[in-house]
Amino acid sequence: MSVTARPADGYAGDITPQQAWDLLRDDPSAVLVDVRTDGEWRTIGVPDTAELGKETVFDEWVTNDGRPNPAFLDALQAAGVEGGPVVFLCRSGQRSIGAARLATQAGIGPSYNVLEGFEGAPGLDGVRNREGWKVAGLPWKQQ
User: Which end of the chain has a smaller Cβ tally under 10 Å, C or N?
Assistant: First the structure.
């Protein structure tokens, strides 16, 4: 499958949650990397790629104190993420941009960012779940 991504600076581009799912489904070498924190995985849920015969890679982009994870690339490589395509997902589609850029700089790619993330940005009322992976109806589960 060919992906038509929204152009981006420093990585392959931005794709919608549905485009991410389609890429993961259609390309046997494609991998999903969830870069949220352990707390987010446990309380908000995680993408479920089991029906595709794939396991999602979980690699925190930031540590519990909000600082960049210095072991991020090492953890990607330890999980076997070396080539692409690699689809990066966070809560709202912001942290995953940095992850896609760093992976691209390290020669891992093509690396994509999932627009809207897992549950989207908060609205003016502070509530999420108006966009993103979950709202798109893509498979997910509580961890």
Answer: N
User: What percentage of the chain has pLDDT greater than the value 90?
Assistant: 74
Confidence of residue 93 (pLDDT cuts 50, 70, 90): confident
In angstroms, the CA 17 to CA 114 distance is 6
Task: Please give the Cα distance from 104 to 76 (Å, whole number).
Answer: 12
pLDDT tier, 2 (very low <50, low <70, confident <90, very high otherwise): low
CB neighbours of residue 87 within 10 Å: 30
Name the CATH superfamily housing domain 15-141: Rhodanese-like domain (3.40.250.10)
More confident: 130 or 2: 130
Domain coordinates of the chain in residue numbers? 15-141
